[in-house]
Amino acid sequence: MSRVQVDRDRCVGSGVCESLAPEVFELDDDGVLQVHREEPGPDDLDAVRDAVQSCPARALALAE
Amino acid sequence: MSVNTPAGPVDSPELDIEAIDLSDRDFWAEPPAVRHAVFDKLRAERPFAWFAEPTMEGMEAGPGYWAVTRLADLDAISSEPAIFCSGQGAVSIQDIPADLSEFYGSMISMDDPRHARIRRIVAKTFTPRMLEQVVDSVVGIVDDVLAEARAKAEAGDGTLDVVADIAAPIPLRIICDMMGVPEEDRLLVLNASNTILSGGDPELTDEADPLTALLEAGMAMAELMGRLAAERIENPTDDLTTALVNSEVEGEKLTHQEIASFFILLLVAGNETTRTAIAQGLLALSENPEQRARWMADPSMDKTAVEEIVRWVSPVTWMRRTATQDGELNGHSFKEGDKFLLFYAAANRDAEVFENPHQLDLSRNPNPHVGFGGHGPHFCLGAHLARRELAVTFRRLFEICPDLEITGEPARLRSSFVNGLKRLPARLTGQR
Ligand code: HEM
């Protein structure tokens, strides 16, 4: 099972992940990143990989 | 159209690398073909090229800078903010004098942890979800501007200026609207942001001394924003200013000085960039009529087309970083204090990354351009907003002004920093 990891010290709340994988990532009202599915299903994986790859702060990882 | 100029680089094997000078202001008035031929040459033969600094009235010239033109090098520098910092200035080659950094000391020229603190507070207002709420107003504003441009052209001889009548008002109204800047102050905002980003183009500042002009523009904006912030504390509304005066992260709020600086950054960063993408994007479409026709007919291309326009135009030509220590990067050694200019415009035409880089391809996918910055903490805060503005603007243009035709040469801004246009003559043919 793959797991999403967020490095909270690096995250700047850019929201790039949310625009690529809105089912999995959401910035809450305080600008803090919420991960709705820490273990994304097979349908989410492509979008999550895209988000990890695109994170401008390199704050995301996917442990597969 | 009869004014076609090739947008790709001119093939000039005789181009002498020793004669290239990116600090020469006249170089930045050259057409794109010349600019990209120079970038190609540097990228291929001297990916870290050293240049003496341009001289600016009232400022002492610094030691010089490395020009970075390969995407991989640029992204590596951008990704290491501890080694390549922004705090000594990200938007000017010269170190910023203390009096200027008072006004422009916003997060774009800050390092963590100060940068992260401010960025987190404001990032809340720029999330994709928050932006969903402003879409309707973006559509409304774009429709208004296009209707006014159309009415003006039709009332006259059918001609218009793409920059003044379409590209400038759209982002200005959107950002002023989001922040709640009153109608009567909007001209001030436009003029001040022009001055701040003009990089001293004499046509854009009345002031003989660009430094004085910069300071005055900054003070005018700071005064306006201070007034606005105070009003919103008294009478909260649903605008961004209200959100900013109230927002806090882990119990911390922005100071008024920080809010004023942030406003200036937003206005400056959000206006000229988006205006440039619209104006230069329209120019690129008129030079590539078959692509324009394809995009016009197929709204599902909006997403890739907008990315390609940002890659193609690269509204922000460069940002600066400064080395905090001695080191080596991809075989290139550098010293503490060395300055690097990250040339996004060059990296976005890197053949190592982009197939046929000098070809506009509105369905290019993937498109890992660095038009909004490379990986790193300063990645454009307004990227979502800008993408939305561009998608709406071009789509509505196709619908409301399908007969828009560029009729003459653009007047280019003589700035190394913004790839802007001052004027772009056009007309509405009346043929739909
Ligand atoms: C097509 C339009 C735009 C382009 C090409 C663009 C490009 C850029 C670039 C290259 C950077 C610097 C990245 C770095 O240093 O790593 C940046 C930063 C920034 N942009 Fe944009 N931008 C655009 C639109 C906007 C808009 C509409 C806004 C706001 C309303 C905005 C606000 C900002 C801010 C606040 C920063 C500084 C972020 C930080 O330091 O953390 N930009 N932009």
UniProtKB/TrEMBL annotation, chain A:
Q: What is the lineage of its organism?
A: Bacteria, Bacillati, Actinomycetota, Actinomycetes, Geodermatophilales
A Pfam family recorded for this sequence: Fer4_15
Keyword list, A-Z? 3Fe-4S, Electron transport, Iron, Iron-sulfur, Metal-binding, Transport
Q: Does the keyword Electron transport apply?
A: yes
Could you say which cofactors this protein requires?
[3Fe-4S] cluster
Physiological role:
Ferredoxins are iron-sulfur proteins that transfer electrons in a wide variety of metabolic reactions.
> What's the protein here called?
Ferredoxin
Q: Where does the 4Fe-4S ferredoxin-type domain lie?
A: 2-30
Q: Which domain of life is it from?
A: Bacteria
Name the species this protein comes from.
Answer: Blastococcus aggregatus
Signal sequence coordinates:
none
Q: Does the keyword Transport apply?
A: yes
Q: Name one GO molecular function term.
A: electron transfer activity
From TrEMBL, chain B:
User: Does the UniProt entry include the keyword 4Fe-4S?
Assistant: no
Task: Tell me which positions the record assigns to the signal sequence.
Answer: none
Q: A GO BP term, please? A: cholesterol catabolic process
Record key words, sorted: Heme, Iron, Metal-binding, Monooxygenase, Oxidoreductase
User: Can you name one GO molecular function term for this protein?
Assistant: heme binding
* Database matches in Gene3D superfamilies: Cytochrome P450
Question: Pfam family example for this protein?
Answer: p450
Q: Which family does it belong to?
A: Belongs to the cytochrome P450 family.
Would you tell me the protein name for this molecule? Cytochrome P450
